[in-house]
């Protein structure tokens, strides 16, 4: 997925708080379409990782100081995104979920 030169690559260990995992796909082809449906005003990340030898791409939305704030944002997501079953994740636990994980900020 090609993005503007302003992309920010970061290790998730540098981040704290909570985010919303919108969906996970085996290919990153459809992620720009899903990302464009997200409300503005919060960071959006692509998290690319290897899991059991296969690539996975997750779309993460927002950075919230508390779990309650993340739940409030989750409940206000459009219905078209709610169908994927988004859920809250701790940012600092994302890197622990796979040996190789790279987060790229998309906005």
From TrEMBL:
Superkingdom per UniProt: Bacteria
GO molecular function: peptidoglycan binding
InterPro entries (alphabetical): SPOR-like_dom, SPOR-like_sf
Ranges where the SPOR domain occurs: 12-90
PROSITE patterns named among the record's database cross-references: SPOR
Protein's recorded name: SPOR domain-containing protein
Taxonomic source organism: Photobacterium ganghwense
